[in-house]
Amino acid sequence: MLARFVPVYPDVIAHHVTLQFDAPTDAALPSERAGEIIGHVDDGVGLEALVLRIAGISERPGGGTYHITWSLDRSAGRKPVDSNAVLERLGWQALEPVQVTLVPARF
């Protein structure tokens, strides 16, 4: 995927999709094992993310948008959590859907 979506910023994250931040440790893992990358956002000042559709929707159950923080510039003070605000503020540009495999896990 990194060859298909070449990261813009020096710090590549590209490793997870958050379902619920601070989920209880006994919460069941999701059953979905597939998703589609359907969009991209780059705020032009240090953060880019890819938007996903999972089970036919891009909105997370608790609010926000399913996404992968793709790359950022930590030297500019950027953090992965900034993706949520960037998506809310700027929205995202649609891409031709790309299938991805999901592996449910806790971080």
Explain the overall architecture.
The protein has 107 residues and is mainly beta. It has one domain. 8% of the residues lie in helices and 31% in strands. The protein is built from one helix and five strands. The protein has one helix at residues 82-90; strands at 11-12, 34-42, 47-53, 67-72, 93-101. A five-stranded antiparallel beta sheet has the order 1-4-3-2-5, with helices on one face. Strand 2 (34-42) and strand 3 form a beta hairpin. The radius of gyration is 13 Å and the shape is globular. The model has no long low-confidence stretch (mean pLDDT 95).
Give descriptors for this structure:
107 residues, mainly beta, 5-stranded antiparallel β-sheet
Task: Please outline the helices and strands.
Blueprint: E1 11-12, E2 34-42, E3 47-53, E4 67-72, H1 82-90, E5 93-101
Antiparallel strand pairs: 1-4, 2-3, 2-5, 3-4
How many β strands by DSSP? 5
- Helix % is under 10%
Can you tell me the residue ranges where pLDDT is under 50 for at least 5 consecutive residues?
none
Counting DSSP H or I runs of 4 or more residues, the number of helices is: 1
Work out the count of structural domains.
1
Give the overall silhouette.
Answer: globular
On the 0 to 100 scale, the average pLDDT is: 95
Estimate what percentage of residues fall within beta strands.
25-35%
CA gyration radius, whole angstroms: 13 Å
